[in-house]
Amino acid sequence: MKKNSLLKGLVGAAFLFGATLSAHAADTLAAVKAAGTLKVGTETAFAPFDFIDAGEHAGLNVDLFAEIGKELGVKIEWVALPWDGVFPALEAGKFDIVAGPATITKKRMERYRFTPPIAEATIAILKKAGDKTITKPEDIAGKKIGVGKATSQLDQLKEFSDTLPTKAEIREYPAFTESYADLAAGRIAGVANSLPNIAFVAKQREGTFEVVLPPFGKKSYFGFIGLKDADHAPLMDAVDAALLKIKADGRMAALQKKWFGASFDTPDSIKDPAF
User: Fold this and answer.
1) What gap in Å lies between CA 223 and CA 50, rounded to an integer?
2) Cα separation of 96 and 110, whole Å?
3) 88-119 pLDDT, tens per residue?
């Protein structure tokens, strides 16, 4: 009897413990609201989405998450770290969602959940102003081209380079700001990054950099990233709804114009990315 009672007790305790865990795990959104804070991970070297301006964190992501925070009724707490550490930190629970943003790809969608797109992400080349040796994307053949480490832009650049008569010499950088510094110093011939990013850099440093048009590769989009398990579904559903509301009432387009000089026609969701 004692053994049966003990067994029943253990089973009951296990059930209660599991139920408690389940309730806690399924309550991510409630936990964020109870804390009054949404923790957002990002790097701060990806202008105009995230960068440091006069010592302050600025960019489209800062403005967009301020609006998301209003919709959810919480404050935004930023956690900055190098890009190649962002995804491991998300999975380790260091923050609730990633701003980034990240290009929406098939491979990433297998592991992570993306919000509705917030901007176009098609890749293009940034060169030094007045460089007549690069007038179209194909002219990077055999040249040293910088790109961010562990980025989808790296994958796209490699794919494009393989189509050239002579492959580009690809140099990977922990942060794009370092690649822009090497481009300005003449240590590399160009930088491959998404068009909104390099258009912003060229505008900020007019006379130093120029954008090589047209963009190349497959049309792609940026989105914010979260975990795709059921535990985080309520939070991601709420962020998705907030972003679609911000898009529908014109706030997103206004912020895109503020940071890119133009707004983007983005789909409400991506089910089958181009790559």
Assistant:
1) 14
2) 19
3) 999 999 999 999 899 899 999 999 999 999 99
**Mean pLDDT along residues 232-240:** 97
Position with higher pLDDT, 21 vs 69:
69
In sequence order, the 6+-apart residues with CB closer than 8 A to the CB of 97 are: 38, 39, 40, 41, 90, 224, 225, 226, 235, 236, 239
Q: Is the pTM of this model over 0.70?
A: yes
What's the CA gap between 134 and 252, in Å, rounded? 34
Of 113, 192, 204, 103, the C-alpha closest to 152 is 103
Element containing residue 51 per DSSP (H, E): strand 50-53
CB atoms within 10 A of CB 62: 22
Beta bridge partners of 46: 50
Helix (H) or strand (E) segment spanning residue 24: helix 2-25
Chain-wide mean pLDDT for the chain? 89
Q: What is the DSSP string of 174-211?
A: SSHHHHHHHHHTTSSSEEEEEHHHHHHHHHHTBTTEEE
Integer Cα distance of 122 and 200 in angstroms: 14
> Side chain identity at 49, as an amino acid letter?
F
d(CA 237, CA 231): 11
Find out whether the peptide bond into 137 is cis, omega within 30 degrees of 0. no
> pLDDT for 130-148, tens place per residue?
999 999 999 999 999 999 9
Measured in whole angstroms, the distance separating CA 3 from the mean position of its chain's CA atoms is 55
Q: Is 227 helix (H, G, I), strand (E, B) or coil?
A: strand
Helix (H, G, I), strand (E, B) or coil at 13: helix
Calpha distance 199→202 (Å, rounded):
5
Cα angle 154-88-37, degrees, rounded to a multiple of 5: 115
